From TrEMBL:
This is 2Fe-2S ferredoxin-type domain-containing protein. Its cofactor is [2Fe-2S] cluster. Residues 6-110 form the 2Fe-2S ferredoxin-type domain. The chain holds residues 26 to 148 of 150 of the full protein. Keywords: 2Fe-2S, Electron transport, Iron, Iron-sulfur, Metal-binding, Mitochondrion, Transport. GO terms for molecular function: 2 iron, 2 sulfur cluster binding; electron transfer activity; metal ion binding. It comes from the Eukaryota. Belongs to the adrenodoxin/putidaredoxin family. It comes from Hymenochirus boettgeri. Its main location: mitochondrion. GO terms for biological process: P450-containing electron transport chain. The keyword Metal-binding applies. The keyword Nucleus does not apply.
Amino acid sequence: DPEDKLTVNFVNRNGETLTTTAKDGESLLEVVIRHRLNIDGFGACEGTLACSTCHLIFDQQVFEKLNPVADEEMDMLDLAFGLRKTSRLGCQVCMRKDLDGLTVRVPVEVTDARIKSEVGKQS
Ligand code: FES
């Protein structure tokens, strides 16, 4: 697919880096789903801003370039486990050319705000 030409690196919970491709305008959640990346429990609400399982941690210089956080995203981020200053929800961040090659980290533990229990916790 000639549109599929941006690169995204996801650092998974076990420290492994999953390098994949993305299209301009595609959300990071869509990237994970389309490539069936093995990130346990990620995107449980399918991008409807109801779960916070798509929590990702960005590098500061990338974070500053992202689209602003909407109130709805902020409310859901507040419920995310292990929130950082550079945390965003992957379903609300879309790829752009100037984000090409970015690296995002998957938090070690996430909470699904819908069921108030931890998912994706690995031993
Ligand atoms: Fe549920 Fe992003 S996928 S809030």
